[in-house]
Each structure stands twice: as structure tokens, then as C-alpha cells.
């Protein structure tokens, strides 16, 4: 993964190879400015060198969003990351809070007058679970703009073209009759059926589009009549009616019939937030290019790239270079964790307090919960080196959550701050 570089005035320079950054740090010409994403700041003033213009490309998703920084002139993927949202967690927390409040109110025996319903929602209101996704992407776009010379943004505006899916025979649109024909419907089905064969459940194999009601029996090309099947199951079914083909598997028959009519929840979340995200990105003052999911898949397939969130982001829009390099690079995995709870105390399943009110002082010995620390324990039962998120206590005995386990009872004296809490946790994968 390339390293971002800032000059002495904190202006972005051209990102450098990790070996070059390591050399600058070793010679004392630079210092670590930020751990995630790794950024260095130069100690010496450099001559005005024009930094290469870069483009942020975004593949927004309901659960994961791919982000890539690309040099359009050379085709180099400078930086790649996958952002994992916490929308479902927010939804669950709000539902739990609502249930507890209702139960408390129902336990009150005194008469309570009905409250006048004068609460209105502002124009363009979105649920908190969806709004958080937009805020996460906005945060990281602004951060990357501070660390490198971003001159343009590309985003996937529509995951699926619903009109073309509902009516595949529509004419007058170039990609319905050209090279992009079929990409929209296929991508939709892959998401809807979880990239598995509907009949045998196999994954990681070539899948074919299959008509639930055969066309020879009057079946249409509507997406509600389409599913995915492996070659063997597709040939075995042939033009048999689904009820006859799965007569000995009533549970599977019922599940397929139900799933064929269910809309995509994740696709709905993306479609709901797409224009709000587009307007948010336009506020940066940079030109914003848009593209569809079918175009993204077409670009990825024609360039021979495998399926990942960040590679999908790199292939968004018509500006995608014909050749891209540094495909097998380290990717920063960023998970949105939030900034903690605003509840004064935790409650049990009945809604009664089970803990004392939390302290208003967040920091203990200079650390706060969520900080990423490095603890080098030299004595005691827990000798070793631990890197991870810290949970502080007033006593000064902390817990450190590493990648694979949680280590309890680490003294603050062994801890060194690597990255201050910013609401996200980080991991790197290759």
C-alpha cells in the first residue's frame, strides 16, 4: 500500500512506495503523521513539485463500500480500502431502546394524557441507519482529500437499472442492444440469490440464468421469474415446472417461491441513499462522475479482474483506465464502530439499570476507550506484545482487543498510543 506524504505545511505530495517512506523515516527526514491510513510528514521544506492529480472511486454498498484512489493517466491504483458500515447495528439499537421505553411506559399505572403529535420530519429525512452510511463515506472522502491531490470523484449511482430489469425488451437504449446487454439483470440476480445455485446450494461455480416457469410453458423474462442455477441443475430441470421438479423437496420449493418475490433489502438501501450521497459529494466542489452497476461489472470483466469491493470501486464509471496495475495490493479494512453509547447506564432485559452511571471523564491516564495502542508487557503472567483497541478503567488496568482475542488486565504503564479513537477500527489484508 502506498504511503501518503505531506509537506511541512501539511499540503499533499505524491504518495510514495513503502520502501521510500521507510528510508525517509530512518534518515530522520520525515515523521509519522497518521497511522491509518499511514501518512508521513516531511521535516524539510521541499521545492514546489506538482503532485499528480488523482481520482477517488466509490462503490457504495449497504454493508460494505469499496473505495479506491486511482491515477487516471497511468492506471495505478494508489490506495484501496473497504469500509464496513454499522447500519444494521444502529437499527437494532434503536429497536431495542424503543421496546424498553414502551415496556416502562406500560408498567405505569397512572393515567397519561395523549401527547399532541406535532413532530414532523425535515425534507429529505433518512433513517439513522441509512444516514450513517453517507456520513461514513463523506468522512473518508474528506480525509483522503487532505492526504493526496484529489481532483475528481467517481461513484456508482445505481446498482441496478430497475426499469430495464422489469422490462428487458425495452428498446432505444444503447447498452440494452450493445456490449452491456444482460449485465444489469445478471448482477441483480447474483445479489438476490447470494451467488449460489438455487437448487443445490453450490457456490464458487459458474451459474446460469434460469427461468422458474419455463418460457415454453408461458414464463416471462421478468426478474421475478428468473433465478440462478449451476449447469447440472439447469439441464436436469429442463422445461419442467418448478412444482414437478421439486415435488420431493417441499421446503426448498417453498423457499424459492418466497425468495423470488422478495425485493433486495440491501439494494433498496443503496437506491434510497444514492442521491443524498451524490449531493453530499457534490458539496466537495469536485466533479462527480456516475455509473451503473452493470457498467462496473462490464469494466471489471473486460479487464480480467476478480470480484472484490475495492476492485469494483476501481472499475466505476467510464473514466476507468484500459490497463490498471498494482491489483494484488494490501487493502485497508475499515470498520465503523461509532463513538460509544450515550446511555448513562446499561439496562437489563426488563429495562432496569444494571450498572452505575458512567463517568463524565472519558480519558484515564491519557487513554480513552477506542484508542489503538501497543502494549509491550515485560513482566507478570501476560508477557508479550499486544496491538489493538483499548478499553479503559479508572483503576488503570486496561483490556486490549487484538485481532483474535481480548487480553484483560494490562497496566496503562505498558501502553503506547498508536492511533487516537476516531470511531473506526482498522485491519490490513492482502
From TrEMBL:
Domain HNH nuclease stretches: 184-235
Name of the protein in its database record: RRXRR domain-containing protein
Species in which this protein is naturally found: Desulfobacter latus
CDD domains (UniProt xref): HNHc (cd00085)
Domain of life: Bacteria
InterPro entries with a match to the protein in the record: HNH, HNH_nuc, NA-targeting_endonuclease, RNA-guided_IscB-like, RRXRR_dom
Amino acid at each position: 500500500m502506498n504511503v501518503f506524504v505531506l509537506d511541512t505545511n501539511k499540503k499533499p505530495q505524491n504518495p510514495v512506495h513503502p520502501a521510500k517512506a521507510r528510508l525517509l523515516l530512518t534518515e530522520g527526514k520525515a515523521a509519522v503523521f497518521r497511522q491509518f491510513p499511514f501518512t508521513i510528514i516531511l521535516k524539510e521544506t521541499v521545492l514546489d513539485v506538482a503532485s499528480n492529480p488523482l481520482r477517488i472511486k466509490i462503490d457504495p454498498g449497504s454493508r460494505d463500500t469499496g473505495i479506491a484512489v486511482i491515477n487516471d493517466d497511468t492506471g495505478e491504483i494508489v490506495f484501496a480500502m473497504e469500509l464496513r458500515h454499522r447500519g444494521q447495528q444502529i437499527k437494532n439499537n434503536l429497536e431495542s431502546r424503543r421496546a424498553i421505553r414502551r415496556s416502562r411506559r406500560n408498567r405505569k399505572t397512572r393515567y397519561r394524557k395523549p401527547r399532541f403529535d406535532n413532530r414532523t420530519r425535515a425534507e429529505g429525512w433518512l433513517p439513522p441507519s441509512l444516514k450513517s452510511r453517507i456520513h461514513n463515506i463523506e468522512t473518508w472522502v474528506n480525509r483522503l482529500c487532505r492526504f493526496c491531490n484529489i481532483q475528481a470523484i467517481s461513484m456508482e449511482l445505481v446498482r441496478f437499472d430497475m426499469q430495464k430489469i422489469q422490462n428487458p425488451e425495452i428498446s432505444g437504449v444503447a447498452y440494452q442492444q450493445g456490449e452491456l446487454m444482460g449485465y444489469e439483470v445478471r448482477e441483480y440476480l447474483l445479489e438476490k440469490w447470494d451467488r449460489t445455485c438455487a437448487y443445490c446450494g453450490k457456490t464458487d461455480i459458474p451459474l446460469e440464468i434460469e427461468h422458474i416457469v419455463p418460457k415454453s410453458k408461458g414464463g416471462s423474462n421478468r426478474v421475478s421469474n428468473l433465478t440462478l442455477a449451476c449447469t447440472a441443475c439447469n439441464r436436469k430441470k429442463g422445461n419442467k415446472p418448478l412444482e414437478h421438479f421439486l415435488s420431493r423437496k417441499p421446503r426448498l420449493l417453498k423457499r424459492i417461491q418466497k425468495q423470488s418475490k422478495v425485493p433486495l433489502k440491501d439494494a433498496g438501501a443503496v437506491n434510497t441513499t444514492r442521491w443524498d450521497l451524490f449531493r453530499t459529494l457534490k458539496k466537495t466542489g469536485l466533479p462527480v462522475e456516475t455509473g451503473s452497476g452493470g457498467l462496473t461489472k462490464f469494466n471489471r470483466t473486460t479487464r480480467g479482474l476478480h470480484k472484490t469491493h475495492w476492485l469494483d470501486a476501481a472499475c466505476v464509471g467510464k473514466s476507468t483506465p484500459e490497463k490498471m496495475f498494482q491489483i494484488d495490493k494490501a487493502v485497508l479494512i475499515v470498520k465503523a464502530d461509532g463513538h460509544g453509547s450515550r446511555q448513562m447506564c446499561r439496562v437489563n432485559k426488563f429495562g432496569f439499570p444494571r450498572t452505575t452511571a458512567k463517568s463524565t471523564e472519558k480519558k484515564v491516564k491519557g487513554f480513552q476507550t477506542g484508542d489503538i495502542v501497543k502494549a509491550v508487557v515485560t513482566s507478570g503472567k501476560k508477557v508479550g506484545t499486544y496491538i489493538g483497541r483499548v478499553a479503559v478503567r479508572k483503576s488503570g488496568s486496561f483490556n486490549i482487543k487484538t485481532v483474535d482475542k481480548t487480553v484483560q488486565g494490562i497496566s496503562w504503564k505498558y501502553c503506547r498510543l498508536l492511533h487516537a479513537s476516531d470511531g473506526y477500527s482498522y485491519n490490513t489484508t492482502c
